[in-house]
C-alpha cells in the first residue's frame, strides 16, 4: 500500500471549476478518483492507468471532468469543470498495483486517501 494525500477541495458556485490533486508516496499503477455524497454510496468518478494511455469516466463525469497524472511527481489530478450541486461530495484518491485497464471497480484498489471536500452551491 501507498500513502495518498488529497488536496484542492473547496466551496465553489455552480458552473465553477476545481482541480483536485493527490500525492502518492510510492509506486502506483492504476489510480482513480471516487466520491461519496452525504447519505449516498461511494461512486467511481474517473480512473487512469500508469502511462495515461487508458482512462474511464462515470457518466456524471464524462465531458466535464479530466483525470491526469504526473508519473515523475507521483501525483494524480482531477480537473472538474461546470460543477453542479450534484457534484458536492467528499472526493477520494485510490491506487492499485494491479495491471488492468482503467476501471472504477472499487475492489481493485487497495490504497485510499482520507478525501477532500467539494461543495458546490447554487
User: Structural class given helices, strands, pairing?
Assistant: mainly beta
Query: What does the main sheet amount to?
Result: 7 strands, mixed
Overall pLDDT: 96
Distance, first to last CA:
39 Å
Shape: globular
Report the sheet-strand fraction. Answer: over 45%
The strand count comes to 11
- The residue fraction in helices comes out at under 10%
- Whole-angstrom Rg: 13 Å
Number of helices: 0
The low-confidence parts are none
Strand/helix succession: EEEEEEEEEEE
Summarize the structure.
With 122 residues, the chain is an all-beta fold. The protein has no helices and eleven strands.
What does the model show?
The protein has 122 residues and is mainly β. Helices cover 0% and strands 48% of the residues. It contains no helices and 11 strands. The strands form 2 sheets. Strands 2, 4, 5, 6, 9, 10 and 11 form a 7-stranded mixed sheet that branches. It has a 4-stranded antiparallel sheet with strand order 1-3-8-7, with no helix packed on it. Strand 4 (30-36) and strand 5 form a beta hairpin. The chain is globular, with a radius of gyration of 13 Å. The mean pLDDT is 96.
